[in-house]
Structure formats: C-alpha cells, structure tokens
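Hi, here's the filled form for the chain we discussed.

Project: internal
Contact: R.S.
Residues: 103
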Amino acid sequence: MLFLLYGLSALLCIAALVAKLYFGGFALPLALLIPAFVFLVVGMLKQQRDERPVEFADLEEWHREELKSLLESGQYGTAVRQVQLWFRGTSHERAEEIVRRLT
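And the returned structure, exactly as it came back:
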C-alpha cells in the first residue's frame, strides 16, 4: 500500500513537470501537485502508524518454533538477531526481551 501511495505521488509530480514544460501555465501543474501532496502525506501517516514496537504477541507460531530451536542449540545471539530481521526497526534490547520470554 505504501508503494502505491508513494508511487502515485511520484508519478503525479513527474506529470506536473511534464505539464509545465509542454503546456506552460501553472493551473495544470498545480492541479497535479495537490493530489501528489495528499498521497505523500497519507503514505507518511500510514507508515508512521504501522511502525510500533513489536510485542511478544506479534510472534506467530512458526516464529516461536524457530526461536525455540535456536535457543535449544545455544544460539541466543542468533535468536535475538532473527527477531530484529523479522521485525525491522526493533532495538536489540526489545528483541532480547522477546527472546527471554521464550526461555
């Protein structure tokens, strides 16, 4: 969804540039830039809303099984790193808390 919003915003900006070059004036480019701005703002708000701290409940069953197998083989650091790979933007400390709940 974010790709669609950002893509539409970029496409409308390019269309505004092309309209300015070929048709001159300012009404058509402005009419194209307004929805581009709206798509950009909606995309940024959606991205901000989606970025929340990961919780233990966010782990699916296959996540838990994978982490348990890593912990059983003594790979605590790998398990912490795996949580960070699954949930981008998760701090090391937060990933450690989640892995500790499995032990």
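Let me know if anything looks off before we file it.
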